[in-house]
Amino acid sequence: MDGALLEDITVTNITMRDIISCPIFLRLGSRLRGPKGTGDQSTVVGTLQRVLISGINCFNSASKFGSNITGIPGFNVKDVKISDVFVQHVGAGTAEDAKDRVPEKENVYPEPGMLGTLPAHGFYFRHVDRLEMSHVEVQPAVA
After folding, report:
1. Contact 115, 34 (CB under 8 A)
2. Where is 88: in which H helix or E strand?
3. CA distance 31 to 109
4. Of 39, 77, 106, 140, which has the maximum CB count within 10 A?
5. Nearest alpha-carbon partner for 50 in 136, 128, 134, 135
6. What is the C-alpha R_g of the chain?
7. Quick count: other Cβ atoms within 10 Å of Cβ 112?
8. 48-61 pLDDT, tens digit each
9. pLDDT tier at 116 (50, 70, 90 boundaries)?
């Protein structure tokens, strides 16, 4: 969010139960609030790339937010691989929610609920280059 270079990240072999937020959340934004004395970092959008997420099991996710991976216009999240993921998710969207336009909010603090109810169940992607998913299951859970 503040000019950081987030690259070559691996998240693997995690089990989550009874979570109240989204299971997977990756956000590239442009708050541009880098620390003073860091040169151009306070005026340059950072990067979020080369991310591997695998071996994730999430049971009884009570969140209305699915997993969310988003960049911003002109600055995409790049090279994300998601594999061997199981998410049991309640969800909460309606047909009307699916019609809403999701705001960009590129300069807002990153948190799962920042974009509101998303027009997707399980995963929402926007401004992502080279996304690969394999062996991913989203199972509706009873609220």
Report:
1. no
2. strand 77-89
3. 7
4. 77
5. 128
6. 16
7. 19
8. 999 999 999 999 88
9. confident
- Report the SS3 class of residue 39: helix
Which of 14, 139, 18, 54 shows the shortest CA–CA distance to 89?
139
Which amino acid appears at position 62 of this protein? A
pLDDT at 41: 52
Q: Dihedrals φ, ψ of 102, to 5°?
A: -80, 125
pLDDT at 66: 83
Query: For the CA atoms of 30, 31, 34, 36, what is the dihedral angle to 10 degrees?
Result: 130
107 vs 73: CA distance, rounded Å: 12
pLDDT value of residue 92: 67
> Which residues, in sequence order, are bridge partners of residue 65?
none
- For β-strands 128-140 and 123-126, DSSP reports them as unpaired
Q: What is the average pLDDT score of the chain? A: 86
Whose structure tokens read 């950081």?
4
